[in-house]
Design brief:
By secondary structure, the chain is an alpha+beta fold. It folds into two domains: 3-65 and 202-217, Pseudouridine synthase, CATH 3.30.2350.10; 68-200, Pseudouridine synthase (2-Layer Sandwich). Helices cover 22% and strands 31% of the residues. The strands form two sheets. Strands 1, 2, 3, 4, 5, 8, 9, 10 and 11 form a nine-stranded mixed β-sheet that branches. Strand 10 (190-200) and strand 11 (203-204) form a beta hairpin. The protein is elongated, with a radius of gyration of 19 Å. The two termini are 23 Å apart.
Length: 230
């Protein structure tokens, strides 16, 4: 290992951990302050998180800009303010009239270069404050649409009201918004119930390690990256 050049770690982020939680844990394991992640994952999402330490922190923007792939499940017939299970779902509406073909056709409407409104419960700053902080206090949050690219939106299984999917998309795409917007298009609403990031660029989830595996690997290497700044 070339410690002078720093390192890149592929982490399988646990459920309910924030990306910052993972960075903090690895800061302790690697004995360095020079560390960061290349693309946030929501606490309720799992999967691939790229961590850069030492001189490799200079590559964070490069990794962050790469194409992402996700798999997940959405629930039709209900919505939530956060577009996921962070907040309580509304009362379910009847989805009996929805067919798998309709879901697949609706998903194709979101393939390509699209304008997407991020969830109010997101880390985007509005007037210097995080949108999710305002939303959690019940304050109205107005976010502007953003241009993103969805290269693939594949419906892989329908077990109504649950729908499994796979998405390949650009940086900045909110899968929660994609699930919400699909529900709106079908006229019954939807929220994201689970999400896993399976790929960033050429890096895949099957290459990733758990935090426990990383801790064991570095147990005998107390200073694997550059020393702390003075």
């Amino acid at each position: 290992m070339n410690t002078e050049e720093g390192i890149v770690l592929l982490v399988n982020k646990p459920l309910e951990w924030t990306s910052f939680d993972v960075v903090n844990k690895l800061r302790y394991i690697l004995h360095t302050r020079k560390i960061g992640h290349a693309g946030t994952l929501d606490p309720l999402a799992t999967g691939l998180l790229i961590i850069c330490a030492g001189k490799m922190t200079k590559q964070i923007d490069t990794f962050q800009a790469q194409e992402k792939e996700y798999t997940g499940t959405l629930v039709l017939g209900q919505t939530t303010p956060s577009y996921d299970l962070e907040t309580e779902p509304t009362t379910a509406v009847d989805t009996a009239g929805i067919t798998p073909t309709q879901v697949k056709q609706a998903a194709q409407a979101f393939v390509g270069n699209i304008e997407q409104v991020p969830p109010a419960h997101s880390s985007i700053k509005v007037g210097g404050k995080r949108a999710y902080d305002m939303a959690r206090k019940g304050k109205a949050v107005e976010l502007k649409p953003r241009a993103v690219e969805v290269r693939e939106f594949e419906i892989t299984n329908c077990r109504f009201p649950e729908v499994d999917f796979r998405v390949v998309c650009s940086k900045g795409t909110y899968i929660r918004s994609l699930a919400h917007d699909l529900g709106q298009k079908l006229g019954v609403g939807a929220y994201l119930s689970s999400l896993c990031r399976t790929r960033i660029g050429s890096f895949t989830l099957d290459q990733a390690e758990t935090l426990e595996q990383i801790q064991r690997r570095f147990a005998d290497q107390p200073l694997p990256v550059q020393p702390q700044d003075p």
